[in-house]
Design brief:
- The protein has 112 residues and is mainly α.
- It folds into three domains: 1-32; 33-81; 84-112, no CATH class.
- The chain is 66% helix and 0% strand.
- It has helices at 3-30, 36-48, 53-60, 64-72, 89-98, 104-109.
- It is flat and about 60 Å long.
- It starts with a helix and ends with a helix.
- The model has no long low-confidence stretch (mean pLDDT 79).
Amino acid sequence: MSERDTQVLIRSIIFQTIRSRLGYLVHFLCVAQVSLDFRQRVMAYKKEHDLTFEQTIIHFDVEMRTLFRWATNITPCITRNKPKSKIDENLLLKDVEGFLDDYQWEREQRPI
């Protein structure tokens, strides 16, 4: 195999990997949450067929971290235990107009 053929093969592998990952990303950005029923079926299938996590992610096209999260806590998270962090855009705009050259950390220290 020539060097050019090797480069073409490497590029095609990289392209396929990126395309498959982007497809997964687009899929899960469109589907906000997976139903509890599907989660239970996936975990039951894994247990019934004695599959590893790797075999399960290939079969169901689900990320490894997702399966680990389902294994520890299968119920979907409905509430968020985090305070609101969004800043009012008008106040931020006034702050930027008043202090043009400030760094982000300086804006953070100043109460808006």
